[in-house]
Inverse folding.
């Protein structure tokens, strides 16, 4: 029976407006919707009902309880979702608000103000980490480089602009504002402590789209309207806009600060600026932009009244700089425009190879450049206290343009790039100041790496990284810090690390900043939406695997750069660094357990697992994903998917388990919860596993638990003697991975073992210290076609490269993934330490497990997925088959690798010159094409 309704009190236009808001903010649903999708849908409907519905149903717990007691409501929500109309839901009696109905405008303002207040509170909290110092150091080094010249006297660098490129929620906006003197430190410290930047003036402007009313910080309408060109704007007109824009900035800043500097100290002037113009949402900031707009309109009128700029002389346009320099900056002839964006070459020229008319206009003519240069020089003179003195290369004035990716877009219909013209303007005024080299910088910030590819035209070089007059562009900055909000190791008990409030502290600061705004399930939906990116994105399977399983994306594959750019811009992948020539970006998914839980929920949603496994296999076969040489990837999939399937073995699985105390953020995330080692190994190897291991083994691990939710990859051995004091010790190393629910993929050269999974003993150990309660599961992967069982006895924790000493039981597993015959052997014994002088006197009991072959006999849990065992076998088969499988190309290619192995293909040069015969079994098989290879791999 359907719930009863009340008479409709809202008009059609209001319902339509509310429906649009719900559809805009409701994430896309892939596959058949489940109760959690409908729970979130109902919350969104309530949230955008302008106060007409009961606000308690904006809580996941209340909404889930309601849906459980009202099955018919699920049917109504399903119908509403399919029709994208929610009028009937809003009119349900059980959902009505107990208080008065707000008007549409009142409800919208109340909602936005409440959300903005919470975000602003998080945004102005004390800044953590040293990213600000590192960024100021980056700007200082850039300013020094701006003084460099080529041997022929040509400046090396094009202009004083650079970029910050990083994925969403990593702190780009906060960093830009924190470059100014901090309000959390006495101002005199900023001028006395060398570890902090000294006196930086920051003008922060946000250029987000006008329809983005949920983002924070909010859009600054004045600069965004000026810089974001309308489609019909011509290149020459946009050039005039840019010159007028910067001239207005320089004059408005000069007027605002010069009075304060004349009557007081630099510290006082910066403090007033910090307390007014840098305060988001303040009336002073609003008034500043109104004055900026007035100045901009004044310069636009002056530019329009000038005579047209000629193409042969800078003097004709009244340039205050020398005719020779003006001719060079205005009249450069550009033969072509070729720029490389992530390995893809984009041509912007006519088919005959000559520059287009729009290119010539955009680069030869900058109407109003004389006003811009004049305003710049007037500003640097008026603010002499800021620019003159020691540390001249330290940043002094930073013009920050946030959400700047739209500037790198192409304007229609002329097809010119806004960034080309904007950065040309910056190049002109900074080039005119090259002798003084004042540290004035324009910084563009975006999630999109294209913001770093501002292309200035170049007559001789085919690269955007080399711009006009042979001058270079600066590589983007990406180091914004990580784990700023993580709990200290001693701040939480090891038995409580699955709590959502603890887990969201790892990784980017975004999750902690949203804690007051969302409950746990809502936060999960935010994370899955950000990780998923735009609806229908074909990269989602690869993103989901990469986030948790440390996929090694092959550099050089034709799809790699496109994926990396998309993953950083839309899927939370993190840019580690970019090379100096900006040709390559090194990116990864660092350990971020809350996002890993969100990725797990995507992976195991309905039939996604088998679909995503097939997608992963296709990427492997295409060469985009490197699987390793000894079963590393297959093993990571095997152990973590086993835990995933164990956690989801019952239909009652929930993303978060409510806390006993009722506190929302004390709920435990299911993928981070402690699970018994006894139960886990029984699930992996079968119900009779502990019967084979023996009662003594089961008793030793009865209080042992694992909790890993994702893998992290190491670059060096577990223990490196030369690290000295940097080695925190095996117990702390293991405990830290336990706290962030991570398991370890060892480096390729690590002796004896390939993986480590942390173990925690909850009750057995008498010590109260968590450090004394941790142990390990060490795993050795083998993908050979011959057995390696004998190597199991060589695995020890006491090897100098591992150095994990403990009296607690541990597990050593060797898996022969490449064998066809199934085998599982288990032995529990007390191993004598190979280091008699070890500080730990007791011997440590070890559970030795040998497993062979990827099938349901060895691993019974594989029966829970039709695709999983086949994919794992195909991955191992991919490792066992050479990249080109004996084709002529591979045969010749191996000759230049002489000495790389002891095999004949790398040592027997006498055979290299022999004629290949089709009858010779050792000859390359020319007819063995890639399609045949794919079929054979799949058959393995």
């Amino acid at each position: 029976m359907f719930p009863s309704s009340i008479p409709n009190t809202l008009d059609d236009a209001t319902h339509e407006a509310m429906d649009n808001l719900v559809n805009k903010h409701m994430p896309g649903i892939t596959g058949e919707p489940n109760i959690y999708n409908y729970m979130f849908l109902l919350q969104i409907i309530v949230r955008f009902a302008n106060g007409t519905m009961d606000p308690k149903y904006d809580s996941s717990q209340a909404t889930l309880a309601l849906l459980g007691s009202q099955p018919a409501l699920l049917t109504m929500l399903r119908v509403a979702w399919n029709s994208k109309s929610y009028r009937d839901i809003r009119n349900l009696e059980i959902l009505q608000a107990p208080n008065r109905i707000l008007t549409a405008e009142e409800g919208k303002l109340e909602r936005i103000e409440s959300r903005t207040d919470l975000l602003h509170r998080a945004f102005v909290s004390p800044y953590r980490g040293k990213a600000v110092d590192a960024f100021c150091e980056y700007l200082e080094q850039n300013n020094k480089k701006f003084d460099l010249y080529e041997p022929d006297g040509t400046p090396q660098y094009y202009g004083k602009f650079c970029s910050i490129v990083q994925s969403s929620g990593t702190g780009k906006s906060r960093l830009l504002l924190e470059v100014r003197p901090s309000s959390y430190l006495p101002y005199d410290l900023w001028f006395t402590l060398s570890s902090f930047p000294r006196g930086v003036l920051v003008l922060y402007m946000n250029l987000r789209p006008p329809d983005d009313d949920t983002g924070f910080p909010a859009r600054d309408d004045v600069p965004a309207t000026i810089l974001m060109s309308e489609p019909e704007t011509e290149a020459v007109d946009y050039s005039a806009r840019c010159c007028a824009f910067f001239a207005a900035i320089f004059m408005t800043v000069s007027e605002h600060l010069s009075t304060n500097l004349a009557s007081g100290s630099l510290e006082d002037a910066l403090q007033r600026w910090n307390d007014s113009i840098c305060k988001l949402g303040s009336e002073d900031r609003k008034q500043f932009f109104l004055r900026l707009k007035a100045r901009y309109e004044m310069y636009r009128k002056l530019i329009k009244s000038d005579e047209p700029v000629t193409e042969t002389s800078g003097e004709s346009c009244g340039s205050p700089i020398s005719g020779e320099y003006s001719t060079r900056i205005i009249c450069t002839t550009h033969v072509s425009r070729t720029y490389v964006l992530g390995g893809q070459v984009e041509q912007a020229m006519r088919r005959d190879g000559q520059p287009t008319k729009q290119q010539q206009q955009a680069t030869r003519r900058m109407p109003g450049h004389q006003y811009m240069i004049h305003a710049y020089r007037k500003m640097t003179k008026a603010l002499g206290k800021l620019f003159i003195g020691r540390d001249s290369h330290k940043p002094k004035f930073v013009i920050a343009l946030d959400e700047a990716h739209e500037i790198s877009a192409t304007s229609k219909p002329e097809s010119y790039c806004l960034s080309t013209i904007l950065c040309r303007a910056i190049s002109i005024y900074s080039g005119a100041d090259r002798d003084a080299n004042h540290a004035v910088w324009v910084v563009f910030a975006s999630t999109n790496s294209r913001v770093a590819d501002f292309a200035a035209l170049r007559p001789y070089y085919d690269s955007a990284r080399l711009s006009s007059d042979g001058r270079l562009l600066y590589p983007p900055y990406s180091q914004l810090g990580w784990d700023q909000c993580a709990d200290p190791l001693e701040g939480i008990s090891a038995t409580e690390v699955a709590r959502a409030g603890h887990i969201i502290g790892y990784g980017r600061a975004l999750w902690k900043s949203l804690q007051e705004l969302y409950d746990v399930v809502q936060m999960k939906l935010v994370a899955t939406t950000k990780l998923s990116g735009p609806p229908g994105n074909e990269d989602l399977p690869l993103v989901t695997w990469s986030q948790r399983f440390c996929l090694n994306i092959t550099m050089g594959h034709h799809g790699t750069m496109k994926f990396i750019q998309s993953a950083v811009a839309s899927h939370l992948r993190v840019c580690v660094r970019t090379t100096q020539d900006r040709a390559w970006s090194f990116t990864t998914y660092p350990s971020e357990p809350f996002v890993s839980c969100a990725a797990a929920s995507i992976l195991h949603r309905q039939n996604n697992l088998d679909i995503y496994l097939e997608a992963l296999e296709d990427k492997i076969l295409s060469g985009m994903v490197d699987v390793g040489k000894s079963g590393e990837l297959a093993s990571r999939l095997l152990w973590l998917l086993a835990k995933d399937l164990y956690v989801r073995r019952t239909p009652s699985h929930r993303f978060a388990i409510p806390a006993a105390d009722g506190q929302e953020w004390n709920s435990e995330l299911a993928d981070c919860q402690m699970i018994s080692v006894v139960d886990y190994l029984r699930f992996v190897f079968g119900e009779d596993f502990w019967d084979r291991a023996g009662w003594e083994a089961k008793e030793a691990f009865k209080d042992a638990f694992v909790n890993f939710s994702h893998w992290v990859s190491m670059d060096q051995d577990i223990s490196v003697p030369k690290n000295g004091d940097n080695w925190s010790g095996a117990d702390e190393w293991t405990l830290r991975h336990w706290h962030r629910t991570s398991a370890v993929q060892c480096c390729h050269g690590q002796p004896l073992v390939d993986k480590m999974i942390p173990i925690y003993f909850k009750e057995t150990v008498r010590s109260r210290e968590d450090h004394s309660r941790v142990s390990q599961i060490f795993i050795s992967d083998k993908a050979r076609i011959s057995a390696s069982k004998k190597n199991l006895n060589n695995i020890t924790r006491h090897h100098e490269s591992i150095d994990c000493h403990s009296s607690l039981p541990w597990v050593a597993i060797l898996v022969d993934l490449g064998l066809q015959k199934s085998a599982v052997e288990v032995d529990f014994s007390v191993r004598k330490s190979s280091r008699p002088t070890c500080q730990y006197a007791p011997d440590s009991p070890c559970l030795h497990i040998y497993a062979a072959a990827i099938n349901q006999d060895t691993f019974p849990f594989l029966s829970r997925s039709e695709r999983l065992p086949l994919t794992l076998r195909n991955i191992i088969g991919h490792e066992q088959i050479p990249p080109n499988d004996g084709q002529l190309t591979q045969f010749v290619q191996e000759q230049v690798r002489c000495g790389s192995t002891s095999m004949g293909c790398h040592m027997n040069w006498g055979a290299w010159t022999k004629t290949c015969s089709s009858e010779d079994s050792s000859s390359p098989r020319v007819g063995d094409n890639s399609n045949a290879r794919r079929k054979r791999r799949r058959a393995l």
User: Anything to note?
Assistant: The chain has 34 helices and 25 strands. Residues 181 and 199 are 6 Å apart (CA to CA).
